[in-house]
Amino acid sequence: MTDETKLYVDLTAATMTPGDTPYGLIQDAAIVTEAGRIAWIGPKADLPADYADLARHGLNGRLVTPGLVDCHTHIVHGGDRAVEFEMRLNGASYEEVARAGGGIVSTVTATREADLDALIASALPRVDALLAEGVTVLEVKSGYGLDTETELRMLRAARALEQHRPVRVVTSFLGAHAVPADYKDRADAYIDDVCIPALRAAHAEGLVDAVDGFCEGIAFLPDQIARVFDVAQELGLPIKLHAEQLSNLGGAKLAASYGAMSADHIEYLDEDGVKAMAEAGTVAVVLPGAFYTLRETQAPPIDALRKHGVPMALASDCNPGSSPMTSLLLTMNMACTLFRMTPEEALAGITRHGAAALGLTDCGQIAAGMRADLAVWDIKHPAELSYRIGFNPLHSRIIGGTSA
Ligand code: DI6
Ligand code: FE
Fold first, then answer.
1. Distance from the CA of 202 to the center of ligand 2, in angstroms?
2. For ligand 1, is residue 214 a contact (CB within 6 Å)?
3. How far apart are CA 356 and CA 353, in angstroms?
4. Ligand 1 contacts CB of residue 104 (under 6 A)
5. Element (H or E) spanning 373, and its range?
6. Ligand 1 binding pocket includes 321 (Cβ within 6 Å)
7. Does pLDDT of 94 surpass 80?
8. Does ligand 1 have an atom closer than 6 angstroms to the CB of 320?
9. Residues 149-165 pLDDT 10s
């Protein structure tokens, strides 16, 4: 036992470890943390004698969950698209919005104009909103630079967030997000001239934890994505994919054939694609914020994912276009109301399965050996996290065993 050994008592733990008990719930639990990890978790009545004399940190009967994992965000970007949102609601057509410099191009322009400090400064309030709801792990993508310099700057900004806030950041290189204006109708040339060299440069600088892409008619076709994935594989980087968001191009199947960690969005995924994901152990990342914002009507195939045992993660997809959202609590509520996921599936989606979508094996559950990253809530039952709309019951976060 070390000085930093801590004993938390007077709590209910939703451990989210798989098993027979919903939510892995333990009433009147005790948690021992040591050197940043969970040393012991169980019913307080079973606390091993060697821990019995530790000073007790009482949590007043609160609920403790694993720290939340937001496994899909574009939280680092320049500018916003609020005026474009307003224009569209005032009747402007897509073309009018585009002519006024709107759409993803406007975010690329604003991101290219922002220096490193500006990118960090504009991301921090959004990050703070997530942390205020118990997030301890945050994935951040590039993809609004679409040139080497800006893609790298976005990833440097993402990494720097860890220096500014108590949060663990995991990065994804998303050079294949959109075809920039100067490569219009030359997507292949963009992949060869910009995307792949930028990926190599970002990897050489240690900025890339995984490689992502946007497989869609308005972005990149499967064979173009495959060329990026080949390079990822050569570099030993895991892959993931925005797939089947607006149409079915077989992106999830392609991703599964590369052993992808996740396929994300997947509204238009068919059962074949679900099976391929199940076989490859690919996590389905469901993004209700984008579904809601785009007023999409086709929901992801939740029943088929359940039937084939594909783990479902949930994330904010925080981005200035299709999901200007910084709330995992609202994400959970939307997943339940719009997609009929259960509150238990929703919580698993932002804990255990969110961690799996990022290839992380040391978080997302409260179990011995895991990082002691926890969220403490002023609620009695975990279903309250999905049930409320616009209410934040977070009491505190514990990072590495210490209040953050
Ligand atoms: N899918 C999306 O919904 C966002 N990116 C993606 O690959 C949209 C990005 C944007 O409009 O800024
Ligand atoms: Fe996305």
1. 19
2. yes
3. 5
4. yes
5. none
6. yes
7. no
8. yes
9. 999 999 999 999 999 99
Q: Is 172 in the pocket of ligand 1 (CB under 6 A)?
A: no
Look up residue 266 and give its amino acid. Answer: I
Type of residue numbered 230: D
Q: Which atom of ligand 1 is nearest to the CA of 323?
A: 3
From first CA to last CA, the distance across the chain in angstroms is: 22
- The closest of 212, 209, 214 to 162, measured between CA atoms, is 209
Compute the average pLDDT of residues 376-383.
Answer: 98
Q: What φ, ψ does residue 304 adopt, rounded to 5°?
A: -65, -40
Is residue 400 packed enough to be buried (19+ CB in 10 Å), middle (13-18) or exposed (0-12)?
Answer: middle
Helix or strand (DSSP H, E) at 391? none
- The alpha carbon of 382 and the centre of ligand 1 are apart by a number of angstroms equal to 31
Percent helix, strand and coil across the chain, each to the nearest 5: 40, 25, 35
| Amino acid in position 65 | T
pTM over cut 0.90: yes
**Which one, of 403, 401, 350, 397, lies nearest residue 128 by Cα?**
397
